[in-house]
DNA sequence: TTGCTTTGGGAAACCGCTTTCTTGTCGCTA
DNA sequence: TAGCGACAAGAAAGCGGTTTCCCAAAGCAA
């Protein structure tokens, strides 16, 4: 690419070394047995001319890029960042690069962006796609090889890597239950979020397993502001008997705690609060926030593993859901005297 | 790319429409005057066959990719994430995609990664490169067109987009000075960080401008843990007369505040604390954290502006340093009774 | 020595486009 | 009616590699 003045090509090298292009190519790719003397000459010429093969030309003939694209709804989401980092590092080890495509939460653009990205890459990672399930099924069909992250897609021949939110939430409810809590408020995430739906399924399962628990659902969102704004509803629930809160994620939990602190509600004495994701800040909140830890980088690495296998046509490792790990900290405590 | 079974090519379209490849290409690119009837036929064939031109083949002949790479020391750094997001959205508007290359803070790999990335792209963004200045100068020469972010490079023909840390720190010192603080502790960042050096220059300038101020430098780092761990040194400085702290960034400030809270030091009554970067959490800390706000997305957008101009060979907008905006919050207050 | 199989390496085809070059057709003027 | 210029569209030449195909030389057995 680019406007460097006439980069040296394989033809230049061939001429300089007095051999054919084919031989240079063979040397370059370590093909067949080439006369050691020719290898020498070619390598010398390459070094002298500072020759670097054009990846584009190679792509054209090889039909592959050594590039994959990650399509993501919002690059600023810490979860996706961690996944991107893990993916990009793992891919780099295999000589692949990662292209990012931010759909800016624009559901209608998702498909077009994915298709376009696929044209430039050997494979795709669809990160938490927002589109309706039917469309998604058609899309993954069209853009294979592809790995879907953080969105379940039952009965489809596509590896899915994600978080077992159902299990995570159940574990979290168990934790609170063990602390004596029976009335729990769930401060929910964006209504369109698939992972929010998973969390709610977890709540439903937990209810079935523990009939003595009651859960109040309060709508909120996914950001600090949303948690902050949900404080009113939470306090209502509290007055109504809730002793613990599960927030959609840590940001919501932190925002909520901030507001509760302002209002003089003491956590965990008056109210236990738990988040999800275990963002770095969770351990540094006051009080430190109980959360479910999600291995972000690991998810990225696992994603690459599957994508790579798919690209190489090797055996496809199957889907995997990472079970979040409970990080019990100070924001949840045994139920005690109520304010 | 990819293993789809023999994608349709321009030749297929030409055959199907009964015209030459050249005509199809002309239709595709809106070139010259083509018989409207042929345009019709070609477009019909394209639609019917579901033809999409190969970006790779186009790249080969056009000598460009419509892709740029962003080389970054650590994708998990919130600052770089914001820049990446801004860059990628702005570039997308012009039909460009962004490739990410994480050097994992590995200084020795930076050059190789940058050169390799440049081979696949039309241009490069070097984000806070860690390498020594001499090498960097040689590198930017080699990989042009390039824009450097968050690292000053005086006297070089390369656009630099960044943050005016010097000015930001001076403004912050002014803020504290206005509140009556004269003894300030600076909890510094990583020794190799160029932006840390800039901040220190800001401190030096502030001292010159305000001879009545004294600043104690304490080494720390860039993360929550580093701030947490720096509490001992900060308390020493406090006992020694410091009434305010400027932290390398918000994470350090937040980590420090967490520890101080644990130790019963009250902010801002006993000690004023200010951070830098204005991460989302800053406004939600307890007390809310005074910080210098940096327009992350805007930096990304500005970077694209320059890169695009460079690629197109248009007039190069020159370097720009964004002056951080003071977000005065509750963690800094007028000097008062000391604990 | 002859004849056959290896084997190394060059010529050329090809990947899927864009663009130049060339040809053929049409319309116009003399 | 012949002749010239415009112009639309096809043929073909790249872009920079890889790979097939083929030939010449070498190695070996008979």
TrEMBL record, chains A, B:
GO molecular function: DNA-binding transcription factor activity; transcription cis-regulatory region binding
UniProt xrefs under CDD domains: HTH_LacI, PBP1_LacI_sugar_binding-like
UniProt xrefs under PROSITE patterns: HTH_LACI_1 (PS00356), HTH_LACI_2 (PS50932)
Lineage: Bacteria, Bacillati, Actinomycetota, Actinomycetes, Micrococcales
InterPro entries the UniProt entry points to: HTH_LacI, LacI/GalR-like_sensor, Lambda_DNA-bd_dom_sf, Peripla_BP_I
Keyword Transferase carried by entry: no
Keywords: DNA-binding, Transcription, Transcription regulation
Domain of life: Bacteria
Organism of origin: Agromyces terreus
Domain HTH lacI-type: 8-62
Protein name stated in the entry: LacI family transcriptional regulator
